[in-house]
């Protein structure tokens, strides 16, 4: 009689068996008790267990169940992206097709959660797993060098459960911000690199752009970058620029209480505004719409959009992202912030699918309902 395979959610009572299986299956890069506990209790994740009768028990007709495998999927707030973080199969059950079964179940769970794509990383020397993923329709889209504890590279694979029409995705280079307040410069680097291969993706360049575009102050800490500052920085480097802004006065100022900081924000705002008047930057005093973003992409531009990070990290702070593609249902982003505390890696922050409705919600920041974007086009040739 063939035993029915059914997954169930892990509970804290399963921790000892989960740890035992983890330690038996992996020699390095293991999840520990604290990580499993967090994933089960608080993580935006699915920890699923597969219990089967041990081979010798099946032959003897015993009822006891053994933890044959587990599946761990991470879901990312505000996005339609899921990531297979780990699959472990008890050596006693290998050779029974459980890996393929778990991969198929991962797709079901991801679709049920509203995800449109599944991503994973795999050791570059794990030929068996790589062959399985390819056979199941996964495609390699990158490499993460020196990823594992023993310095082995990770190959990055993806399977779209919802497919983009052919030719929709533009290859925009990715750059990870190196400081909490440099999301804007990181996005501008990506956009400029897409338009000019000679653009240097370096921290020095990132910081230089921040110095040029910063508002100096925010609610707390160092100031981020506003749309006018980013537009000017790109224009100075010869790029054609288009700007949307629906707020007339200084942005971010309502979140600042200190009167000295408020006066500095106002002064910086006036300075950027006066400088822009001396340029050929096309400025729209209007909310940026999804139709505007589509027009930019169709014209070969790269849009930077300011969003609220609440949907991503549950923090009410402004955050810049790069729009890489759009279709009828989703908008795709490069997010420069790799939040390792939320179990994210570079795999999770590129070509991130966001539903159009969710994007409309997140592309609005603060009490003033700020909607703004900066579009970068190829350099002026005249």
Layout of helices and strands, plus pairs?
Blueprint: E1 7-9, H1 15-25, H2 33-41, E2 45-52, H3 55-60, E3 66-75, E4 81-89, H4 98-112, E5 117-123, H5 127-135, E6 139-144, E7 154-160, H6 183-195, H7 203-213, H8 227-236, E8 239-245, H9 259-276, E9 282-284, H10 290-298, E10 302-308, H11 310-313, E11 318-326, E12 330-334, E13 352-355, H12 356-362, E14 372-379
Parallel strand pairs: 4-5, 8-9
Antiparallel strand pairs: 1-2, 2-3, 3-4, 5-7, 6-7, 8-14, 10-11, 10-14, 11-12, 12-13
Q: Tell me about the biggest sheet? A: 7 strands, mixed
CATH class of the largest domain: Alpha Beta
Order of helices and strands: EHHEHEEHEHEEHHHEHEHEHEEEHE
Nearest-integer average pLDDT = 87
Strand neighbour order, sheet with most strands: 1-2-3-4-5-7-6
Rg to the nearest angstrom? 24 Å
Structural class of the helices, strands and pairings?
alpha+beta
Q: Which percent range fits the helix content?
A: 25-40%
What count of domains describes the coordinates? 2
Stretches where pLDDT is under 50 for at least 5 consecutive residues are: 58-62
CATH topology of the largest domain: Cathepsin B, Chain A
Hey, roughly how much beta strand do the residues contain?
Answer: 15-25%
The end-to-end distance, rounded to whole angstroms, is 77 Å
The best one-word shape is elongated
**CATH homolog superfamily of the largest domain:** Cysteine proteinases
